[in-house]
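Field reference: sequence -> structure
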Amino acid sequence: REFPSPTEIAVMAAWCGQGDGYLALTVNVAVTAGLMQASKSLGDGSGSLKDLFTKFPIMSSVSGSSWYMASLLYSEKFVKLQEEVAAAKSDAGKVFHNGWVDKEYRPKGASIASIVWAKILEAAGDNMNYGVLISTILENNKLTNITWLQYIEVLLSHTAGIEPSKPLGSTDVPSWGLSKTWLCNVSVVAPAADTKSMLWKGKPLYQSHVSYSTTNTALPVTPESALEKEYLPARFSVKVGAGVDSSSTLSYCATSVVNSSQLTLKYSGVEAGCLPWCCQDSFSSSAQLSNGISANFEKGAGHLSVSACTAASSAFLYGLVAYAGDIEYDVETLLNTQFIPSVSAGSEPADAFTSAPKMLSDLSAGVTQSSIDALASGGVHWLADAGATDISGIASAIAAGATEVFAVFMQPGVGLDAKSIPKVSVDGEADANEVLPNIAGVAPEIWALYMLCQGGTLPGGPVFAETYKDLRGKMEFFDLKQTVDSSPLTRQVFGSVKATTVSNKWFGIPPGLTINLSFVYVISSLGIGDSSSDTWNNYEQLISDIVSTMSMPENEKLIQDKVLKGTFF
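Structure field:
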């Protein structure tokens, strides 16, 4: 790629949402609500989403923030709920709970399964976030199939009215987001030449299996590279409301990656005989994905499913199954599951996420040269949570041209009783053994931002020329005074800092750009939705605490003067 010089880059702003499951969803709902309230004395005085985000043509999301942004960009129902949450202030959490959890999320079917799960959720104090998935499987599939894609389809359908068939290019979208670029970030599971990722495995004790790898030994450094678990950054992108025939606004992977042999996949299959230790036949085939990616993920982007792209962005179980061993894959086979989505680069875009699972399922009839050739022709591969490459969404936003960024950062699992938080950088290097005081006035330690700096672990190296220590040293920030002493909300910080880019070919970032980064950083005792304290009652309280804190007169004035003026207006 021929990079433009820094002087040729127009000033463009991006909103970026960090991934962290249900915590990301609820933090985004609350922060947006607080900003909407505070903005009523600015702009056109409406405090609307359209007015608040007028300056932001790019919305870049990861994982749980992709649930949020998909809902906000494609659902009038969810926009209405966001507006109601903003107007509720101290009752914001209750409004969200009533409108999202009780009214939409909770199973309401007439089947015994739905009734039972609704009762269990109620009795457990909304402590079973994935209950809607289990209920739906019991009602519709009788435990014959469990997939992450299905879960996100059900989640978005129930809570936002986004049906699985709704395409990225749909014109039936809320007016506030029209013509904005949405970057739905994902990671491609791209095993190095000497490593393999299992695509399919026969029943336990039998040796039939199919796997794939790239043909390369020069893949980028990633957080798990020491374990030879490689991922490439990618993104589904679209101009919202542009129509189903619209193309992507940014390449699926950086141009230099797609056009090289980095995305040449080699498929290997073994068909075992009637006994697991004899009569094995082996097959192989290869495919270069560039043509399929260009035709279906880029030129055909408008036809891709909103729910499927969101599922790929949030497939957080990739660490268990993308490079699963025999035991893990045997469990997945027995349950007939897919905990991360498979996709076909060679299929029509509307069928990309449905044709791949079917091709894998058809392997149960036998692994043959024909079936391996079909996988290669389809360019079938796994997609993983975008957090496997960049949990912040900032790298893709910069690649799309953003030089002004507002980021929503968060840190899960740190309670008010914690006197310290992990220190993520010592002279630019991670050190989990050191801690910093968890008190107001101490420059925050933001792991998602550290990853972008020198010493971080982004593919192909850092995005910024500075170490995190450098950025902390020049960071301007202020803490919000909190309304309560005991809360899921541990600390809320707003801040800003300038950073300079270095070349990163894996994301497609040129060197020498000055990035003006503003942020909100929410530290909470709650997790992403996988711990005992992550109940909907506690998420409700977190939303109320964030909105109430931002609405306090002294805090609201700080937000208006130091955040909204300049960054948003």
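Note: Confidence is low (pLDDT under 50) at residues 1-10, 223-227, 425-430.
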